[in-house]
Write a structure and sequence with these properties.
alpha/beta, 6-stranded mixed β-sheet, 3-stranded antiparallel β-sheet, globular
């Protein structure tokens, strides 16, 4: 019997912005049902990798497969949690409406969400602990609350793989613990999470797999096997490794 295809497979991926390569000849396979961290210094191409998977940037070369097929055919299996800084939080809408937007992919843009979609959105808000904020304007939320809204919007999609760009960035300790608990619940349900992550000290605690990236892929695999001092020095350089960068641009 053939083994199931990886949740995400990247082959010979190169992405360039003008003359500058952001990713160079990257090969990466993410097993199903795992929590995978993508780590590396500023400018390493971590966000570019996520955007390439989503078809938001055009690769110069390479192949990307999601559950064995192209993203355009697997779109409904994928949920995306962007960086909070990439969103206009002054847009006049409330929390429930933002989360309900996560159902549009399944509905199609010509159908309006109904009671079933609203109930699913409320349940997702309950899962992330902010159901009491459903009617709150998003401009009134704290950073941690905003991140929970993003997670709820991803959850309501009922995806098979979740791509998250810095899900822990700028959140309080309580929200971070809630996110970790949610990621573990997703894994227990057989879902896959790939998260851009910046805190090296929590990689081993939070994740099963890790990809060390600095334009090229330095190493990837089980945390206990590849998250080594040697690979970290190769990824960050001696100075960067000692500084343990805490912020991702």
């Amino acid at each position: 019997m053939n083994a199931p295809s990886p949740a995400l497979e990247v082959l010979d991926l190169t992405v360039a912005y003008g003359e500058r390569p952001a990713l160079w000849d990257v090969d990466l396979a993410v097993p199903r049902g795992t929590l995978t961290a993508v780590v590396g210094p500023n400018g390493a191409g971590k966000t570019t990798l996520v955007r390439a998977v989503l078809g938001l940037v055009r690769p110069a070369a390479g192949t990307i497969r999601v559950f064995g097929g192209p993203y355009r055919e697997r779109r409904r299996l994928v949920a995306y949690v962007p960086q909070r800084g990439s969103v206009d939080w002054d847009f006049p809408t409330n929390v429930l409406d933002v989360v309900t937007m996560g159902r549009y992919g399944a509905l199609g843009w010509l159908r309006r969400p109904g009671r079933r979609e609203r109930e699913a959105a409320v349940e997702s808000l309950r899962q992330v602990g902010i159901e009491d904020l459903a009617d709150r304007q998003i401009s009134e939320l704290s950073g941690g609350q905003q991140q929970r809204v993003f997670l709820a919007r991803a959850l309501v999609q009922d995806a098979e793989i979740y791509l998250m760009d810095e899900p822990f960035q700028g959140v309080d300790a309580l929200t971070e613990r809630a996110i970790v608990a949610l990621l573990r619940e997703l894994r227990e349900a057989g879902r896959t999470v790939v998260a851009v992550h910046h805190d090296l000290q929590t990689v081993a605690e939070y994740f099963d797999e890790v990809a060390l990236l600095n334009v090229r892929l330095v190493a990837s695999g089980r945390v206990e096997e590849v998250f080594t001092e040697e690979n970290l020095r190769a990824t960050y350089g001696a100075r960067g490794f000692l500084e343990r960068p805490a912020v991702e641009a």
